[in-house]
Amino acid sequence: MSTLTNKFTSIKLDTVAIGGALPFSLIDNYEEILQESIKPLRTSEIQHYIEKFDTNKTYYPLLHLGHDSKEIDIYFLIAKGDTNGFSMSVFKNESKTDEADLWSLGGFESFSNMSDMVTLQEGLSRDNLYSFPFFSNIYTEGYYNITVTSEGKIEVEKIEVAEGDIP
For the range 86-92, what are the long-range contacts, defined as Cβ-Cβ under 8 Å and sequence gap of 24 or more? Predict the structure, then answer.
């Protein structure tokens, strides 16, 4: 298999897609990253997406979600190394507005653990924002709801689930 270029799998967020799940298995780059058959990002490229990054990790482009009318772009990166990583960066009008270390928030043990607990969305919510549920090994009383605001900020809300309820 030939090495791919370092491009993100790209999806346009043009429509409201309630329940439009996007599991990692459907993201083209995901398996390529796990097999290390995709070209990693260069340091200058990493710095564009992540302010504080670990030079002992290798970073790969996972997914780019774009929304033309709001001029919001969301990028997800995966890092491999002694400890792994999963990061999210948001840009508005091509300027970075926020970033989040989702690997630490989730307390993940492995990529398979992460892909079992996180399912991204391939569309917008009814209020035309991008959000997705985020389960964590650390917060076990419920889950997080992660939303990208129209200003390009990442909001993390804890959603408590009563014992016996299904989230």
Answer: 86/114, 86/118, 87/49, 87/50, 88/146, 88/154, 89/49, 89/50, 90/148, 90/152, 90/153, 90/154, 91/152, 92/151, 92/152
pLDDT in the model for residue 105: 93
Tokens of 149: 């605001």
How much of the chain exceeds pLDDT 70, in percent? 88
The reported pTM is 0.89
Distance CA 152, CA 74 (A): 9
Q: Are 150 and 42 in contact (CB under 8 A)?
A: no
- Residues 6 or more apart whose CB falls under 8 angstroms from that of 121 comprise 17, 20, 21, 22, 130, 131, 132
Least confident of 43-52, 118-127, 146-155: 118-127
